[in-house]
Amino acid sequence: MLDLTYAAPEPKRIAGAKDDWELVIGMEVHAQIATKAKLFSGASTQFGAEPNSNVAFVDAGMPGMLPVVNEFCIEQAVRTGLGLKAAINLWSAFDRKNYFYPDLPQGYQISQLYHPLVGEGEVLVDMAPGIARLVRIERIHVEQDAGKSIHDMDPAMSFVDLNRTGVALMEIVSRPDIRGPEEAAAYVVKLRQILRYLGTCDGNMQNGNLRADVNVSVCRPGQYEKFRDTGDFGHLGTRCEIKNMNSMRFIQQAIEHEARRQIAIIEDGGAVVQETRLYDPDKGETRSMRSKEEAHDYRYFPDPDLLPLEIEQEWVDGIKASLPELPDAKKARFVLDFGLSEYDASVLTAEVEAAAYFEAVAEGRDGKMAANWVINDLFGRLKKDDRDITQSPVSPAQLGGILDLIASGDISGKIAKDLFEIVYTTGGDPAAIVAERGMKQVTDTAAIEAAVDAVIQANPAQVEKAQANPKLAGWFVGQVMKATGGKANPAAVNAIVTARLGL
Ligand code: ADP
Ligand code: MG
């Protein structure tokens, strides 16, 4: 097993502060469920469709329309809960959160306040190779998304696009166990990775399919630990919530800024006001959006249009049995089975498709060598073309074929790089290309001896120098490699040069 160290955060002095402070951060991540239809209607969830083309009557809040739960969405949320080692509540219920938004025609959002589908779970956040920190999940509830108001198309009017209205979201609520900006970003990275492995959310942050609300407060060193196990964080500093962030970089910047703002207020003798703020990346600051409403402002009540959601343990067990191997387990197995460093294993398991690619190459071959080729050569080459692993022109079988030719001594490592480039750009079977193009390494001793002798005869002055200073023998090796078009076996050339020069 991996050696996971649960490191306590180092209290650090925040720039500009007079005293030592620690950060306390809890996140509410909205993950769009990967599904073709909306949560309570059959309308499509396709991204980028013509505005207002994916809207059922129920999404538009037409009178008399009734929501019908999309079972697949519930299954995806259960799968997510199980992937986060969370408790699944067999009895849950939908509530109405009442508020008016032009892009929410119902006049309320259907969510789960009192009885969420998923209870407590956890995420192991990778901070550095071998160092992980545990962030507890408080709950996951299923809810509808709102549509989109468009304010920048006309100077006098606003428009509304209801395509997103009613799309299924999972709100994944963490405990305030996150202790710094880097950890907050690493948390989102890990959560996104797990969701993508599970296939329950595509994690596309640019399209807004994964967005985070970040709650930030500051406290005196050691205060958080006092309350960690009680779960009662009300005695810590007052928090502010920064809404709707969809980039790891902005999450970090917003937290840094917000912490500094709060510390300055407290050190000046003021008090932080609990409120919702927005981060402005251009100005690098957060600004107030609205003061935090009390729950009763939303007049939450059980949605009378929907029966409580009752699911069966057997159904949950079936979903559990179908879970894929998740990132932590895969990484540990790569370290054990293929002898990889933890760093390489992290890189290879970051995306499930890359992990599958690597395994197909490494199966029955030298794991470390396979890892080097996949990480350095393949990933490097793909990056140059701005492609991801699913668009690789070289298949695992082709890359494996190249590695086999190296292992059998048919080609040198250097020729293998050329061969890789040929396979990458023109395709084809590596062994056939080597045969056709005469790229086979010369291991025939007689041929190498002849090449060495020719170089020695043509360069008597160099021979004298090398005999006086054996370090210069490398020059002969280089000449022979050049003369044979890089196809001579370098080890054999070395041995013959040394022998012929009498070194
Ligand atoms: P609310 O009921 O106001 O939505 P919750 O208790 O549900 O508040 O918490 C919302 C989020 O705020 C959670 O992610 C939680 O971890 C986080 N949170 C709670 N207390 C603090 C705190 N003192 N500092 C930072 N985040 C906090
Ligand atoms: Mg809450």
Structural class: alpha+beta
Proportion of residues in β-strands: 15-25%
Radius of gyration: 30 Å
Regions with pLDDT < 50 over 5+ consecutive residues? 1-6
Mean pLDDT: 92
What's the helix count?
A: 16
User: Which outline best applies?
Assistant: elongated
Q: What's the count of strands?
A: 16
Q: What number of structural domains do the residues give?
A: 3
Quaternary structure annotation: single chain
**What does the main sheet amount to?**
9 strands, mixed
User: Could you say which small molecules are bound to this protein?
Assistant: adenosine-5'-diphosphate, magnesium ion
Which percent bin holds the helix content? 25-40%
How far the N terminus sits from the C terminus, by CA atoms, comes to: 49 Å
How would you summarize this macromolecular structure in one to three sentences?
With 503 residues, the chain is an alpha+beta fold. 38% of the residues lie in helices and 18% in strands.
